[in-house]
Specification:
- Helices cover 31% and strands 33% of the residues.
- The longest helix is centred in the last third of the chain and has 15 residues.
- Strands 1-2-4-3 form a 4-stranded antiparallel sheet.
- The protein is an alpha+beta fold and 72 residues long.
- The protein has one domain.
Length: 72
């Protein structure tokens, strides 16, 4: 899984190495699930995805990371 919608936000899997840098980008915040931060995943606010280029850039981040994972 590289990304997916959740309400008005987009979950993006960026990987642990790119996580801190991704959090510096507009609209990104830590993904927390059951009050625990999931390093390697971020939520991106809808406001940061209003144009096609911004959405495409976040989807590409997710695709780039999952492309490094071994096949299952």
């Amino acid at each position: 899984m590289c990304c997916g919608p959740n309400g008005s936000e987009l979950m993006v899997r960026v990987g642990k190495e790119a996580w801190a840098q991704a959090l510096t980008l507009e609209g990104a915040r830590e993904m927390d699930f059951t009050a625990k931060s999931l390093k390697g995943f971020v939520w991106v606010a809808a406001e940061a995805l209003e144009d096609d280029e911004a959405l495409e850039a976040w989807v590409e981040r997710g695709l780039d990371f999952v492309g490094t994972l071994p096949p299952k």
